[in-house]
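Internal tracking record. Fields below are filled automatically when a chain is submitted to the structure queue. Please do not edit lines marked as system-generated. If the sequence contains nonstandard residues, flag them in the REMARKS field before resubmitting.
Queue: standard
Priority: normal
Entity type: single polypeptide chain
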Amino acid sequence: MNSKVRVSVLAVVTTLALPALSAGPVFNFTLGSGIANGDQVYNGFTQAASRWSSIFTDNVTINVTIGFVSLAPTVLGSTSLTMGTVLDSSFKAALGMDAKSADDATAVAHLQPSGSNEFIINHTNECNNCTSVYLSNGSKYDNLHETVSLAEARALGLYSSTNSVSDGSISFNSDFAFDFDPSNGITAGSYDFVGVATHEIGHLLGFFSTVDDYDICGSTLNCITSRPNSAISENEDAPSVLDLFRYSTGSAFGTVMDQSADTRAKYFSIDGGLTMGPLFATGKNFGDGRQASHWKDNLGLGILDPTAAQGELLGISQNDIRALDVIGWDVVPEPGSVGLLAAGLAMLAFRRRRC
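SYSTEM-GENERATED OUTPUT FOLLOWS
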């Protein structure tokens, strides 16, 4: 049986241009350590980027620094992304204006009312290591904003589509054996480089969860649990956009999100938790052992699965496309231009973040 190595999400900030197929995203790569223009690593990244560019129609430019260096022994690749927070009402207005698919329409119709997000949460200074979940109404934890990646903000018209600010950085572990040509399968004993690069770019596009913040903080007892409440409310732990569609059987009855890190099943749903979609991972420390910014492991749910096996050919699934569609990316031709929101409704300051 092939062994599996966890693909980390180190969800920060980020030039050679890769032309997008059709009108999709264009990726500008800045070459870091261990990569030269035209080598197999660079070509692998361009193939991965082209996969996403062929699926989405958003005409934006994404700036990414890429590297090929020695990393931790259990990590194939890691991603840091530039992220910020958007006022809940502004974000939901943008998501509504951007809705083009049937899934978009369903997702927007079932969002909680603007400015009133509620979510189940644990591993906080009020409910650390608790046996029952804590229902937050925003009195101490941020339910007035969404956490977004810069790339996602570009797609939604909340940030310039061509500004040269870095969207993130991706590093691959040069200590592993990789197969750089997936066209003829993946060599036994090697990992699918293009597939893992596709996975990491997916995180830049917005597939991440702030549940990982609570999971990390709860384990060390020196993060959220020791910070003053005012610091917690500084938009740092606002749900990610993907978290708007994260539910459990314990939260669906009240159509509230589930931000808790524990072993209870969490699932993707676009209709307020009524319909159970693919399962999410539930947390490295307090959950199932995998970062919450992924699908559930060992179910073959998509490119955003948390692990990859030697010899395994990795591909984008309909689950991946559907999730990115409802958080702001467009998978159907745009019927016309959509105006940008006024600057006063747009992004607050971006920051660098690691999950």
